[in-house]
Write a structure and sequence with these properties.
The chain has one helix spanning 9-12; strands spanning 16-19, 27-31, 34-41, 47-55, 61-70, 89-94, 98-102, 107-113, 129-131, 137-139, 179-183, 186-192, 199-211, 214-230, 233-245, 249-260, 263-275. The chain is an all-beta fold. The strands form 4 sheets. Strands 11, 12, 13, 14, 15, 16 and 17 form a 7-stranded antiparallel sheet that branches. Strands 1-8-4-5 form a 4-stranded antiparallel sheet, with no helix packed on it. Strand 14 and strand 15 form a beta hairpin.
């Protein structure tokens, strides 16, 4: 939880938000919410992200579900087409399936943004979206509990409450140059395969970074090491991957190195450039 922005207030402040009135009753949803947005962009390539959150009276915004679409794929994923700047499009944004109860006294919030970095790569240029609020909507799969629901054998599960309370996510702060850096390193882990005695170990380090207002500065990098050890036998594979981009191309640099008993026995690397193809 310390690496996940479950509480959405920092992202909400960077988004266009719409709040419902205070709920006078609980509302249950089960299924796939759908956002229908009338939108235009000032660039031929743009994305549209929609998040649904539950906002408490204290102002906390808790994520319920979200969806993200590259608007050049608005009609087809197989044959994307550039946007005509200034032209409005009716776009459906399917959100991830969810089962959730919005509590009485809270609000339902819809937050709209052009991207969800570092979940998705930034568009080639800075994009301004225009939303027609009166022609846009959020469709929630509201669940009406059946009259006989109380008779169903649904187990009641009680979770212990941590004395320290929930872990609070702290969003990164930019450095003097405006660069944001997010480290998502996984702690080293190992386990023994039952019946074989082989110990498998794994270490992964991941970094995402970007300079505010400069999509070409985006960089994603990962280092991983996986090992297998049993008795005198000790093998390990190390891999690296780095992705950067310009407005027209991605650059992907990768390497793979294998070790046996601490001695390098194999190495391969590549450095390729790929056309962005409307993303």
């Amino acid at each position: 939880l310390d690496r996940l922005p479950i509480e959405q207030s920092p992202d909400d402040r960077r988004s266009l938000t719409f709040d419902s009135a205070v709920l006078d009753a609980n509302i249950e949803i089960l299924g796939y919410p759908l956002a229908r947005i009338r939108v235009s962009a000032d660039a031929p390539v743009a994305k549209l992200a929609v998040r649904v959150t539950e906002v408490t009276p204290e102002g906390h915004s808790w994520l319920v579900t979200y969806g993200l679409r590259n608007l050049t794929h608005r009609s087809s994923d197989a044959t994307p087409a550039p946007l005509t700047p200034g032209q409005f499009y009716e776009v459906d944004i399917p959100l991830f399936m969810t089962a959730h109860r919005f509590k009485r006294g809270n609000r339902i919030r819809v937050a709209i943004s052009e991207n969800l970095w570092p979940l998705s790569w930034p568009s080639p240029t800075i994009v301004t979206l225009t939303i027609t609020a009166g022609a846009s909507s959020l469709i929630l799969p509201v669940r009406s509990p059946p009259a006989h629901e109380a008779l169903l054998p649904i187990p009641e599960i009680h979770h212990p409450i941590a004395k320290e309370g929930p872990v609070t996510y702290q969003p990164p702060e930019p450095d003097a140059s405006g660069r944001y850096v997010i480290h998502n390193d996984q702690p080293p882990a190992s386990y023994e395969v039952p019946g074989i005695g082989t110990t498998v170990s794994r270490r992964v380090g991941e970094t995402s970074e970007i300079v505010l207002g400069d999509p070409a500065s985006c960089r994603w990098q990962q280092n991983a090491r996986v090992g297998w050890k049993r008795g005198p036998w000790d093998c390990e594979v190390a891999s690296t991957c780095e992705i950067t981009s310009t407005a027209t191309q991605y650059r992907v640099r990768e390497s793979l190195t294998a070790f046996k008993n601490g001695v390098q026995i194999f190495e391969r690397s590549s450095d390729v450039q790929l056309d962005r193809d409307l993303n």
